[in-house]
Amino acid sequence: MVELKQVAENVIQGKAPQVKEFVQKAVDEGQDVSEILNAGLLAGMNVVGKKFKANEFYVPEVLIAARAMKQGMSILKPILAEKGIKGTGTVVIGTVKGDLHDIGKNLVGMMLEGAGFDVVDVGVDVSPEKYIEVAKEKGAKIVGLSALLTTTMPAMKDVIEAIGATELKGKVKVMIGGAPITESYAEEIGADGYASDAASAADEAKKLMGIE
User: Fold this and answer.
1) pLDDT value of residue 133
2) Where are the alpha helices (DSSP H) in the chain?
3) Of 54, 92, 191, 202, which is least packed with CB atoms within 10 Å of its CB?
C-alpha cells in the first residue's frame, strides 16, 4: 500500500518520476483519488509554499517541486474529471496591458495550482476585455493581475473597473501583485486582495474563497 506521505515527500524533493510512480500505484490500489490529491500532492506543495515563504526554498526548488506535482496531476486529472470532482476554484491570471514580465506571474500560477486551484494563465500584455472573456468562459472565481512596471499599474484599475461594469461584478474577486504594488494601492483601486509574493498569493486566494 502506497503511503501518501511518500507522495508528499517526493513532491517536496522534486522527484517527478517517483511522484508519478507512487500516484499511479495508489490509483491502481484503489485509493481514494481526492485523498491522493489532498494528502499527497497538495500536502507536499503546501510544505513547499511554507518553505518558500520562510526563505528555506528558492525559485528553482519551487519550480522542480511544481514539475513533480504536475506529473502526479497528469494521472489524477482525467479521473477527477470523470468523477466530477472539482478543484478549489478557477483563477484566471495574467500580466496587465503594456507589461511583458511573467516570472512572478508564473510562480503565482504554480503556487495556486499547488493549493488546488485550476489556473488559467492568459499570458502577458492582457487587455481588460481578455480577462473578462476568459473569466466568463471558465467560470472563474478570482482574477489575478500582475504588474512589474509602475507605468502599467494604472492598467490594473482599468481591469477592475471593466469587470465592475459587467455581470461579473460581485461574483469575481480581483487580486493584484507585483514588485511595485502595495496593499494601500490595492485598496485605492478597489482590488479585493493583494499578495506581496507568490507564496502569499495562494493564501490570499484561499481567503478570498472563504477557505482557511
Assistant:
1) 98
2) 4-12, 16-28, 33-35, 43-53, 59-83, 103-114, 128-138, 154-164, 183-188, 198-208
3) 54
> Can you name the residues that pair with 194 across neighbouring β-strands?
176
pLDDT, one tens digit per residue, over 116-135 is 899 999 999 999 999 999 99
Q: Residue 199's closest CA among 61, 8, 9? A: 61
Domain identity same for 105 and 56? no
Length of the chain: 212
Q: Do the beta carbons of residue 41 and residue 15 sit within 8 Å?
A: no
Q: Please spell the DSSP secondary structure of 98-157, one letter per residue.
A: T----HHHHHHHHHHHHTT-EEEE--SSB-HHHHHHHHHHHT-SEEEEE--SGGGTHHHH
Question: Alpha-carbon torsion 60, 61, 66, 69, what sign?
Answer: positive
In this structure, the answer to whether residues 143 and 186 fall within a common structural domain is yes
Q: Express each pLDDT in 151-198 by its tens digit.
A: 999 999 999 999 999 999 999 999 999 999 999 999 999 999 999 988
